[in-house]
Amino acid sequence: MYFINSIVRNRVHSRAVRVPLFIAALFCFGLVSQQVSAQQQQSLQVGTKVAPPFVLKSDSGELEGISIELWRRIADDAGLEYQFTESELDSLIADTEGGQLDASVAALTVNAEREARIDFSHPFYTTGLAIAVPSRQDKLTAAISGFFSWEFFVALSGLCLLLFAVGALLWVFERKRNAEMFGGTPAKGLGSSFWWAAVTMTTVGYGDKAPVTLGGRIIGFIWMFAAIIIISSFTAAIATSLTVSQLETDVQGVDDLPDVRVATLANSASAIFLDKEDISYNKVSSVSEGLKQLKKGKLDAFVYDKPIMQFYIKRDFDDDVEVLPEIIERQDYAIALPENSPLRERINTSLLRVIERDDWEEVLNEYLGK
Question: What GO MF annotations does this protein's record show (predicted)?
Fold first, then answer.
């Protein structure tokens, strides 16, 4: 009897213990489900940076462009809530690495240095670095306008002053004994002397005027040899004012970059490439600023992502700057993610669906042209 009572008490106690444990398990499961659901509904922080035509800002301040359109389609396909946060390139990489950003979309190039810090999605656009140079038409215009430059007029004025000084010295000796050629009023005599100095320097030698005094002939003899050196120097001065030196240093490709003035954006893929090739360069704050310096003649070459430069040139510098056809280094654009991001597979799957659709080609054509 005691044994039976003991068994009954144990079963009752076991059931009493199981019921609270079951309730606790259901409660924990509910909490976990709520947390998972909250995480799924939580708005993602997506970093971006203006980099036309991949990220643009409309007049109303709304973001648009290839990368923005791509992310919106991915988010719709994957059911993601998000909000954009604008930042600079360095901050995009650092904040994605630190987890402050759940993703970054712009014109972000996949490279080994960044891959060591963050993860990337599948590439969605393949392009490369290119070199922008002043257009040949613009250089010809600059050469012609050089005739009206301040440097040209300074050189020409200096030469005229020298011719007048030599002519005046000759006139002092010739004005009395060679009055037929250098006589008359001082203005007429100095004018004839100036003419003689000019034709002697240029070796035209018409022979209509010649010195007859000993002093005049000594001056003529010295002037003939001195003029050879002077005319050479003057020719060099004219060549400089007409930017012949720039015309002779046309950039045709990467091999020309070490010998010319180059610029790019700091911490960009193009800066990494130039550092790797040991090519010195200046840093500019934006693509537009670099192309503007190129137009003004302060640079000989600007290195950056080809499609981005083409967009700016077409919009603002169409007649002044051109992009060389050579692609100097391949680039793959992708979406940046924190390392081991749980969103990576979902984003990759949706990304591949989006770029495989026919209407995605229409988006590219809209921003880049066919």
Answer: ligand-gated monoatomic ion channel activity
* pLDDT for the residue 204: 72
Q: What is the pLDDT of residues 16-28, one digit of tens each?
A: 444 454 454 444 4
Residue 76 and residue 21: Cα distance in Å, rounded?
A: 41
Phi-psi region of 184 (alpha: psi -120 to 50; beta: other; left: phi over 0): left
For the sheet with 103-105, list strands across it.
82-86, 44-48, 103-105, 336-337, 119-120
Residue (of 150, 168, 103, 147) closest to 342 by Cα position: 103
Residues 298-350 pLDDT 10s: 999 999 999 889 888 888 888 889 899 888 888 899 999 999 999 999 999 99
Q: What CATH number is associated with residue 251?
A: 3.40.190.10
Q: Is residue 172 part of a domain?
A: no
Say if residue 269 is in the same domain as residue 304.
yes
Domain assignment of residue 258, given as a range: 126-152+212-332
